[in-house]
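Interim report to the steering committee. The following record documents the input for DUF3987 domain-containing protein (274 residues).
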Amino acid sequence: ANMSIVDDAEYKNALHSCWSIETDFAKWFPDEIAEWIQYQSTILGVAQPYLSIPLLVAVSYCSHQCSVTAGANHTEPLILYGLVVGRSGTNKSAALHKILDIVKSIEVSESHTFESGTMEGLLVAMRENEESILAVYDEFSSFYDSLDKGTAGKCEKSRFLTLYNGKPWSKKTKTNGTMEIDSPRYNMLAFTQPSYAVQFAKTNTSDGFYQRFLLSVPKERFVKFNDKRECLNNKKELLDLESVIKRIYEAAETKWSWSLLMRPTGFMNSYTMK
């Protein structure tokens, strides 16, 4: 994609504007999960959205073909594109792999994740994994820059625009003939640098690609060693999040429909068979 140059003044203004936005992540989750995020973020020395955004995307992936009913006549496929922004040296990779390790602990015959490859490779991976995949990019630029490779670059970007809606996907391939997926669930999780995020935002608003991302640019957090040690010494009995994620994955295989009702203090979930 054609990424415009961002000067220093624009970069600093964008970064500090984002840092000024306070996100009360605790309202997104039940108390037990919020406590797990708070503890792990302290041990890793990272901002809490470094874990909360990946966790939301991971749950979305583990929900398979579930849908979300938000209101009487509005239903959406449960699909998230998560993008977390942080500068180098803020331990982004450790936070990413903390959540990925939980997902990968779920035993399946094929891989849960897709990290690089062609559109045909993505289609094959999704077909082999019950039409679902968790695309993971430790650096978002490696994904976005690849959309301009070859003559099919623009077509590929349009595919990721439509995958967000969970619509059927059919593609003629050289090696596998015509391949089809009835209900694709492509969830994306990525981290990137602030300067790249600013460029991405400037060049992708007209087609709605930028608006599809659950974007977080949290203020950096640096935890002193003594604070980490104190947290370890005072460790409480935390929720077994690995078991929770596994139960969501197994329950979603029966294709539940999730109805989300907004309340002032957060979300209340109700579940009905689809």
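The chain has one domain: 8-271. The committee is asked to note this result when reviewing the revised timeline.
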